[in-house]
Write the structure tokens for this entry.
Amino acid sequence: MFTKILVPVDLDDLDHQLRAIAAARTIAVADKRPLALLSVVQRLGNYASTFFPKDFERRASADALQRLQTLAERELTGLSVETIVAHGAIYDEILSTQQRIGADLIVMASHRPELQDYLLGPNAARVVRHAPCSVMVIRD
């Protein structure tokens, strides 16, 4: 049914991400399709970057990639999995990665909403509104 599944992962909130990963795994196994795990490292602004070491973003990216690969080995054994680290605004990077890799399904977790979010977290809401493909939101 789907050709490629993109799973954005918040590495700092893995407890909520595991349900989305499990749902994506079930679909990937059933359809015998590849998965892509994506982690987004937010860019530091010019002012904020003065408070961090010069190679902070490079080290953060390397750490995120290692953590994604470990997660894939632990949770997605036996599947074709690509691990991707992007930099920028979370929802923008999810949407641009989806287009770049040709994913036709995004499976993502959404935190329990605050009153101002009402139904979905702000990143999930933007992805759902703007994605040109199907989006499955796994609520915690």
